[in-house]
Amino acid sequence: MNGDNPPPPPPSSSAPSRVTLHLGHLPSKKDIKAPWPRTPTRVDPNNPPWPAYRGYHEYSFAHATMQSRLPTILGKAIEDAIRTLNTESSEERVVDLAECIDRMGDLMTDLSGNAKLRPIVDDDEADVALWNKEIAKFFQGKDFMNAPWLFAEAYKYRRLHESFSVSKFWRDYDVFYRQKCDTFSRSTDAVFELSLRFADPFKISDTLSPSEKVEAERLMFLELTQVCLWGNSTDLSLLINMTEEQIKALQSTGGDSLAATEKNILGNDMNRLWDHVKTLREKTGGRVDFILDNAGFELYCDCVYADFLLQSGLATQIRFHGKRYPWFVSDVTKKDWEWLLNTMVYGQLFPNASDVELESLRRLGRRWKQYEKEGKWVYEQHPFWCTGYTFWDLHSEAPDLFLHLSRSDLVLFKGDLNHRKLTYDCAAPASTPFEVAIGPMASSAGAPVIASLRTIKSDVVVGLGPEGDEVAERLDKAEPGWKISGKYAVVLLSEGRPGEKVRFA
Ligand code: F6P
Ligand code: MG
């Protein structure tokens, strides 16, 4: 043995200890802000394109919603189910419903105790896999307050549905149904204002020159776009305690009032929308898709608008996309759709209406039912619409739906929640162009032309133009609450990537 050489160190399984260099003579680290938005390929629910709203953000509507609005809405839903329970006679059905009410009670405990979000029980709904994949990938250990607001709020409505969907007799029970029917019946003035004008197919006077006819049609289009837009301001989740007078004021569809309300459309692409729509007739009429929002009065306004698009020859088919189960209180389900058309033709909702008014409503309803029979109007309900995914994920999580929408000539997204989903529900600056804010829905190959018709009822606001940040700042100071009042609106257009539209034979 050579005594000059020390023996080699014993082999070690642990990693070599780290060497720490002292960099005291280098320049200090700079406070570098990552550029917003994050590139779409790096976006996921935990890495949103801009900071996402969350329930614990006390300054935001997210907080008010998660803290108090959702428990109130759930409390009212429980009251509704109890009201039904008290009218039931069959023991089997009563016991089954009482169990649904217990599950709603558990949800209330989870919501008010800010529990962690658990997976959805397999209740045979087509969206269970989508829900649980998203929870497993992004929300393990997250609770109602620290998950992004959009997901947490949607999750609450999915859990509410689960309270019923695992039952034997009450799978399709709608705790909001009574309220939805009720607001339509309380919208008397605005309902007849429109039915009296549109009961018979409209006709533009033959005495006008071709250019005057186009102008008359343009003006009509712009007014009806506003009717369709402002129909969104009366959604039940916000306006539960409104008086009839307040509803009337919101729903006023008279010409003066529309002119006055146009100045409240802070991002206004209505003229660009017309420029697009008027090209559809040249293709012997286009296909227009409505991604619906609320039932009752808003749906009625959507149908008046859709009727105009058909009658004017601008569209040949309208596809309406609704929800598969009760969602965000007032959203349209198949049952709400059928109820509206049938109540217009056969119902007795308006005891004080004149015979002329009632007849106008019946005629309108009969025409709309006929459109359905002829396939000119089609009602659809894809499972993706009731998930917590934003529409940035529509092409990856529901490719069939994305391809389907790619074939449309115009996709109209109605309302606040759809707008939140289009924009990832983030704190993007108000000057952010709409096409940037909706990411892949504007930039993916095959992205259709999209318009968002939304009265502003929550924090996210984009598309206000180059001066948008100053406009938002001014309103923040002058009218705190302007983002949730429903007084302001946007009509925003994205031109899509029509060159790459997927076409089928
Ligand atoms: O609870 C808040 C919210 O999700 C907001 O998006 C909006 O205030 C309301 O519910 C739903 O509005 P809309 O029916 O227009 O989507
Ligand atoms: Mg809604």
Description:
This protein is of the alpha/beta class. Helices cover 46% and strands 8% of the residues. It folds into two domains: 45-165, Transcription Elongation Factor S-II, Chain A, CATH 1.20.930; 177-500, Rossmann fold. It has helices at 61-85, 91-112, 128-138, 149-165, 177-185, 188-198, 210-230, 236-239, 244-251, 255-262, 270-277, 297-311, 334-346, 355-373, 394-397, 399-406, 415-422, 434-437, 440-443, 468-478, and strands at 265-268, 286-291, 315-321, 377-380, 410-414, 450-455, 489-494. It has a seven-stranded mixed β-sheet. The longest helix has 25 residues, at 61-85. It is globular. InterPro entries: ARMT-1-like_metal-bd_sf, ARMT1, ARMT1-like_metal-bd. It is an enzyme of class 3 (hydrolase).
Present the secondary structure layout:
Blueprint: H1 61-85, H2 91-112, H3 128-138, H4 149-165, H5 177-185, H6 188-198, H7 210-230, H8 236-239, H9 244-251, H10 255-262, E1 265-268, H11 270-277, E2 286-291, H12 297-311, E3 315-321, H13 334-346, H14 355-373, E4 377-380, H15 394-397, H16 399-406, E5 410-414, H17 415-422, H18 434-437, H19 440-443, E6 450-455, H20 468-478, E7 489-494
Parallel strand pairs: 1-7, 2-3, 2-5, 3-4, 5-6
Antiparallel strand pairs: 6-7
Helix pairs in contact: 1-2, 1-4, 2-4, 6-14, 7-12, 13-14
The protein binds 6-O-phosphono-beta-D-fructofuranose and magnesium ion (MG).
